[in-house]
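It would be a great kindness if you could assist me with a short task in structural biology. The matter concerns a single protein, recorded as an amino acid sequence and a row of backbone structure tokens. Could you please explain, in whatever detail you think fit, how the structure tokens follow from the sequence? Thank you for your consideration; the sequence and its tokens are set out here:
___
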Amino acid sequence: MVAILRLILAVLLIAAVPAAAQQSGGSGYAVDGIDVDVAAPTPEAARSAAFRIAQRKGWTMLWSRLTGGPVSAAPKLNDSQLDSIVSGIESQGERFSMTRYIARLGVVFDRARSREFLGGTGITLQSPPMLLLPLNSDGGLRSLYQYRTPWRAAWLRFRENVTPIDYIIASGSPGDNVLLTGWQARRPDRPSWRNVLNRFDAVDVLVAESRLTRVWPGGPVTGLFIARHGPDGTELGRFSLASADEAGLTVMLDTAVRRIDEIYSAALQDGRLRSNPDLTAEMAPIIALGAAIGTPLTGGNGVDLDAEISSLEVAMATPDAATASALESALRGTPGVAGVTITSLSLGGTSRLIMNYAGSRDLLLYSLDGRGLRLAAENGETVLRRRREGEAPIPPPVIAAPVVAAPGAAPTAADPSAPPATSGVTRPGARTLPAAPATTPPAAGPTDLLPRPNA
């Protein structure tokens, strides 16, 4: 009897609400995880009341996520207005009887019709494009796109339409597998990250890390989830979840994805999720940056592109990623430095780089001293270190200015182009050339170039 009643109720639900199983695709806002518990005289009345409650809760959650305001500040919409902007309701798990309906529902709002009610408030909370790296660690194996991990599948199921974070998820092509690895996710090298972000048209990187631990195969699973931001892996939050068995892993990961998205959204709202300016190069109009004809071309830090560039291999102590990033940024901002390439990065040890600079070595030492840095010879190699307390500053180098003769003045002996001066002493056997006749400057006026007839 109970089975027959359930079958009848299922048929009624499908017939009455055909839009309940529709997916939002790319034209809707999806709000998931709305819990309802409604009692009514009939199952149809309980289900209808639960759908009304889900629409009301979903609207306030949608408004809060898109604007960053509290749920209580959402505009009040009546049921008719909600019906006009809701395109579907889906069940994410339900239990019911003849008088009660308990379920977790998802509400899909039509994107175009919802903007009519969001337009008065404005969507003020929106991040720039962020590259998402779903880093998964399971059984000691760290991977991103090299394997079809359940953590990556959870992010693909997550519909980012109702989040202020503009996630960019790679397709997992062979090229992505080469660039995006577990090692790259924790690499602070700025030039490498610029190449990666330019490939995906992103301005920054987000690393969503999942560390799964199984008690035994098929048994309980615990997960540690960490939300990181930027190439330095700045941690924004972490939490732990547990599943009784392998069957509940999917639900646990879906919950973790939503919570990590909430961490990123909160960080964006309070200003912690800011893109790193040295990861992207803003391209200004070419005409505005064009140099005038005849002026020397200069690169970054005022380096003359036509000047001779010298290279220097330098070693530096890098106890952590923050120190390596700070030293690299200081070098790139030093006047005269044309480029910095890290050839060997060793966090907790000694890293090595090649520094290209224009000008003399003394001028480079003076510029580095202005940044609080010193180059010293230690153990047969050049070491970059901070300027120690008590060390006297390096004086500016003396640059000899070229001697420019005044117009009409006699050349000086210092001028190598000047002819040797003559004196009254004549070497034996030397020939004396006759002096050149003095010339008189022509008189002002026109010169007649035509031959004249003999008088």
Residues 7-26, 282-295, 413-433 have pLDDT under 50 and may be disordered. The radius of gyration is 37 Å. Residues 43-67 form the longest helix (25 residues). The domain at 129-279 is CATH 3.40.50 (Rossmann fold).
